[in-house]
């Protein structure tokens, strides 16, 4: 059922939108609770983790980390050239610790307080899309002050879009998002963008 529903939505988008695609950009949401500022430059290993480990607790130097690091973000550990990729979204605990699951497994032991560096402040993913109320060729048309609705297919989507994600080709931000899930199966999303 899941495959059939997703294929149906994807085919509708392809028919009306000519298989147009767009790239969404998502920034991480990690901040220092004390300052309210971004915390990406302050990350460190919270507890020593052995060689071969596939999850790692991360903190800030102040111990007040807050936020979310989405799936597919990459990071490195000081003294280790391996690039690790998150295999699941990670959210901080009330104690200010972010435990990340990743691949590949640790190539060396990650010791307490060693610095963690994110590969970038954002990730990007490609989605099939259709703009409601416009001809297919007008997907990138910018109409000042006007809200537009995009229909996105879940088939082949790299992750679930969120409010605040930005289209790289137009600079439009998703202001509101609704999941389309007939039969409790996520087939796609309706996203409002633009507006004054």
Count of helical stretches: 1
Helix share of residues? under 10%
The assigned structural class equals mainly beta
Give the strand order, joined by hyphens, for the main sheet. 13-1-11-12-15-14
Radius of gyration: 19 Å
Secondary-structure element order, as H and E?
Answer: HEEEEEEEEEEEEEEE
The largest sheet, given as strand count, sense and whether it forms a barrel, is: 6 strands, antiparallel
Shape: elongated
The fraction of residues in strands falls at 35-45%
What is the CA-CA span between the terminal residues? 40 Å
Total discrete domains: 2
Low-pLDDT windows of residues: 13-18, 133-144
The tally of beta strands, per DSSP, is 15
Mean pLDDT: 81
Key words describing this protein structure:
single chain, 196 residues, mainly beta, Elongation Factor Tu (Ef-tu), domain 3, 2 domains, six-stranded antiparallel sheet, 1 helix, 41% strand, elongated
Question: SSE layout and pairings?
Answer:
Blueprint: H1 2-17, E1 21-27, E2 29-32, E3 43-45, E4 55-60, E5 65-69, E6 74-77, E7 80-86, E8 90-91, E9 98-103, E10 116-118, E11 122-131, E12 147-153, E13 166-167, E14 174-180, E15 188-194
Antiparallel strand pairs: 1-11, 1-13, 2-5, 3-4, 4-9, 5-8, 6-7, 6-10, 7-9, 11-12, 12-15, 14-15
Protein model, in words:
This protein has 196 residues and is mainly beta. It has two domains: 2-27 and 122-194, no CATH class; 29-118, Elongation Factor Tu (Ef-tu), domain 3. Helix content is 8%, strand content 41%. The chain contains one helix and 15 strands. The chain has one helix at 2-17, and strands at 21-27, 29-32, 43-45, 55-60, 65-69, 74-77, 80-86, 90-91, 98-103, 116-118, 122-131, 147-153, 166-167, 174-180, 188-194. It has a six-stranded antiparallel sheet, covered by helices on one side. Strands 3-4-9-7-6-10 form a six-stranded antiparallel sheet, with no helix packed on it. The radius of gyration is 19 Å and the shape is elongated. Residues 13-18 and 133-144 have low confidence and may be disordered.
